[in-house]
Design brief:
Layout (H helix, E strand, L loop, with lengths): L1 E5 L3 H8 L6 E3 L2 H5 L5 H12 L3 E4 L5 H12 L5 E6 L2 H12 L4 E6 L2 H9 L4 E4 L1 H6 L4 H13 L6 E4 L5 H10 L3 E4 L1 H8 L2 H21 L1
Parallel strand pairs: 1-2, 1-8, 2-3, 3-4, 4-5, 5-6, 6-7, 7-8
The chain binds erythose-4-phosphate.
Length: 217
């Protein structure tokens, strides 16, 4: 399963990409609003670091605007994936932009029916938001299970990009279900590394090594 970083922060991306576990980046207007500097330059820099898919979201809400913006975003770098919201215009824009050979991520997906439509119009990625579903008392991971099952029944090429992840359990469940990708905030990636027994085990190994060294002197 691929791991994407859900951020527009170049420093965070640099730090985690250096470890070798980041396959791509997703951004959205809320994440980019936290960053300073020129939008295009930031996106270009993110693409340079990641060398994988980098989602850049359109702001336009009607079809023509989405197409204009999507084509423009795609000129930033070959790794740019145009992100469109799941609306009627967004689905139509996905069909057109995908037909032109651009990669499209259909975002703000909250139902299996929406995911089915996104696949039908050739989305490269579909982004179901699991954390936001959990927030309103619906099981977000149940939706992932449904989408993975539906996509397996047909020769769709759309990859399931599990979004709005909040903790490692989301990531592990997604991997067990066979989702293609999880996008995570840096905090969740940090949590994936942690286990108290690893820390305790390492501390004890080093202590025992020091004791043995001291005894040999
Ligand atoms: C995905 O592409 C979105 O940017 C993101 O995962 C949304 O996460 P949130 O619900 O934590 O804002």
């Amino acid at each position: 399963m691929k791991l994407f970083l859900d951020t527009g922060n170049v420093k965070e991306i640099e730090q985690l990409a250096a470890i070798g576990i980041i396959d791509g980046v997703t951004t959205n207007p809320s994440l980019m609003a936290k960053e300073t500097g020129d939008y295009r330059k930031t996106m270009k820099e993110i693409c340079r670091i990641v060398q994988g898919p980098v989602s850049a979201e359109v702001i336009a809400t009607e079809f023509e605007g989405m197409i204009r913006e999507g084509r423009d975003l795609a000129t930033i770098d070959e790794h740019i994936v145009v992100k469109v919201p799941f609306t009627r215009d967004g689905v139509r824009a996905c069909k057109t932009l995908s037909g032109e050979g651009l990669k499209v991520n259909v975002t703000l997906v909250f139902s299996a029916a929406q995911a089915l439509l996104a696949a039908k119009v050739g989305a490269t990625f579909v982004s179901p938001f699991v954390g936001r579903l959990d927030d309103v008392g619906q099981d977000g991971m149940q939706l992932i299970q449904e989408i993975v099952e539906i996509y397996r029944n047909y020769p769709f090429h759309t990859e399931v990009l599990v979004a709005s992840t909040r903790h490692p359990i989301h990531i592990v469940q997604a991997a067990k279900m066979g989702a293609d990708i999880c996008t995570c905030p840096a905090k969740v990636i940090d949590q994936l590394f942690k286990h108290p027994l690893t820390d305790i085990g390492l501390t004890n190994f080093l202590k025992d090594h020091e004791k043995a060294q001291a005894a040999r002197v």
